Amino acid sequence: MKIIFATQNKGKAIEVKNIFKNSKYEIITLSDLNNEIEIEETGTTFIENAYIKAKTIFDIYQLPVIADDSGLVVEQLNGKPGVYSARYAGENCSFDDNNKKLINELKNFPEPHLAHFICLSVYIDKNNFFHSVGELHGKIVLTPRGVNGFGYDPIFQPDGYDKTLAELSLEEKNKISHRAQSFNKLKHNIEEFIL
Ligand code: ITT
């Protein structure tokens, strides 16, 4: 069974394809479909935005769709960047721009800079809607380390680790990440309820 993953984020696509790799589902991304649509994330919550992405793509293809909206919640910044994590340093900014902005904002606060990632994933088809949440807790480090992953991975060190997420392999990140937790639960629901 084919499921479209409504994302333009290549890092997310690699992680989620890996999570579904031994299942009976084939995950197809927008890039596999040569679809460069930029979906406007007009919601103010993770679930609204995840639903907007999934529904927009479902309306185009009429096939089962998964999507996620995710972000980084930093305690000393009262929860910022939160739902605005992708565009924290402005529209069309790079991951590096976001990391620099965050480091700059945190450098005057005392350590530890506690933070957590949230991933809200959704599945929709013509009869069903499921959603699931995953969280990963840790701290922000002010000197980036590692080249793997994407986004804030070089400056996020999970609790219990002395490496950043960008120093972990794909398999290691997928054992603990907010996205892996969220999509593993979603996959379980899909397997249980969808033929
Ligand atoms: P799509 O909407 O096309 O899926 P996006 O990157 O815009 O891609 P989001 O709106 O969900 O996705 O924004 C999530 C942002 O949060 C992402 O761009 C990163 O900056 C950050 N983020 C989320 N999960 C992350 C992870 O596992 N590692 C590092 N940064 C992450």
Would you kindly provide a written description of the structure presented here, covering whatever features stand out?
With 195 residues, this protein is of the alpha/beta class. The chain has a single domain (2-193), classed as Maf protein, CATH 3.90.950.10. It has 5 helices and 6 strands. The chain has helices at residues 10-19, 46-61, 95-106, 170-176, 178-193, and strands spanning 2-5, 26-29, 65-74, 113-124, 129-140, 156-158. It has a 6-stranded mixed sheet, sandwiched between helices. Strand 4 and strand 5 (129-140) form a beta hairpin. Helix 1 (10-19) packs across helix 5 and helix 4 crosses helix 5 (178-193). The chain is globular and about 50 Å long. The model has no long low-confidence stretch (mean pLDDT 97). The structure holds inosine 5'-triphosphate (ITT).
Largest sheet: 6 strands, mixed
Main structural class: alpha/beta
The neighbouring-strand order within the major sheet is 2-1-3-4-5-6
Instruction: Write out the distinct hetero groups bound to the structure.
Output: inosine 5'-triphosphate
First CA to last CA: what distance? 9 Å
Helix content: 25-40%
Q: Supply the number of helical segments.
A: 5
SSE run = EHEHEHEEEHH
Poorly predicted runs of 5 or more residues: none
Task: Could you tell me the CATH topology label.
Answer: Maf protein
CATH architecture: Alpha-Beta Complex
**In the CATH hierarchy, what is the class?**
Alpha Beta
Based on CA atoms alone, the radius of gyration comes out at: 16 Å
Proportion of residues in extended strands:
15-25%
Q: Given the C-alpha coordinates, what overall shape results?
A: globular
Mean pLDDT: 97
Strand segment count:
6
Tally of individual domains: 1
